[in-house]
């Protein structure tokens, strides 16, 4: 039974797509920054062994003394792993190359799918008073991604506006269904966000039409445009909202954050 004196926990969202190059990490970083800009307290959990979210938020490799690997496999305390970023209101659990071997190490563990779930529900998370936790998943349907889905309340799916965009989505949806049946029955689809959208390109418009016809209302109205500022920002270790606050990319991620918040307000009223 839950303790009624404890504050409600954060909304935990896994950002996942097994296809690489769809804007998954870019979306995680910039959505987190957009939520923080609105005054929410946000934790980004870097679960990708490449550690691009950590690098994109300016966390140097030598500063990653503890990482998400330690949360999963060494029973580390959250307060010993989480680092502040240059974005006010945004913290990160960084990743390093140790995560590369995590899948193999997880296989032999009895509660292998619940390690991140338990790590994000340590009592000391209350001290941070996070409103949102965004998990940047690896580009694969691995045990790390399953851990993210078991830990999360919902899954946000970035979908690149390109040919074959919907190919492979069925496998991701099947994995979500399997996680619901076996470990997290309340897991839901947060939504699908179209990325790298080019309004001048007929293909982008066709992909949008197909996605909305196939997936319906789970596709966000907001779309992330193909934008040079979004592409440049990671090389300066900044979210695009700080790199060029007035860019089309920044405005799109603000709009996505607003749409996400509005969806949650509606869901909370129904709940």
From TrEMBL:
Query: Which CDD domains does this entry report, sorted A to Z?
Result: ParAB_family
InterPro entries xref list: AAA_dom, DNA_Partitioning_ATPase
Q: Give every AAA domain span.
A: 11-189
What the entry lists under Pfam families is as follows: AAA_31 (PF13614)
Signal peptide bounds: none
**From what superkingdom does this record's organism come?**
Bacteria
Q: What is this protein called?
A: AAA family ATPase
Native organism is Sedimentimonas flavescens
């Amino acid at each position: 039974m839950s303790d009624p004196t404890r504050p409600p926990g954060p909304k935990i969202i896994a950002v996942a797509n097994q296809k690489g190059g769809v804007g998954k990490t870019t979306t995680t970083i910039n959505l987190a920054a957009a939520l923080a800009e609105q005054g929410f307290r946000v934790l980004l959990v870097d679960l990708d062994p490449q550690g691009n979210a950590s690098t994109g938020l300016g966390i140097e490799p030598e500063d990653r003394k503890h990482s998400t690997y330690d949360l999963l496999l060494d029973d580390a305390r959250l307060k010993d792993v989480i680092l502040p970023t240059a974005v006010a209101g945004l913290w990160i659990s960084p990743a390093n190359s140790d995560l590369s071997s995590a899948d193999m190490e997880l296989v032999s563990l009895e509660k292998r799918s619940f390690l991140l779930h338990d790590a994000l529900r340590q009592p000391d998370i209350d001290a941070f008073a996070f409103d949102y936790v965004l998990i940047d998943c690896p580009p694969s349907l691995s045990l790390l991604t399953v851990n993210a889905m078991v830990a999360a309340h919902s899954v946000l799916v970035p979908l690149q506006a390109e040919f074959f965009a919907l190919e492979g989505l069925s496998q991701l949806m099947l994995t979500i269904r399997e996680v619901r049946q076996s470990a997290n029955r309340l897991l839901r689809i947060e939504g699908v966000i179209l990325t790298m959208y080019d309004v001048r390109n007929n293909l982008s418009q066709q992909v949008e039409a197909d996605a909305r016809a196939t997936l319906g209302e789970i596709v966000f109205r907001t779309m992330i445009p193909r934008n040079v500022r979004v592409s440049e920002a990671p090389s300066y270790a900044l979210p695009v909202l700080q790199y060029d606050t007035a860019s089309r990319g920044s405005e799109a991620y603000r709009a996505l954050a607003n749409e996400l918040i509005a969806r949650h307000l509606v869901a909370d009223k129904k709940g």
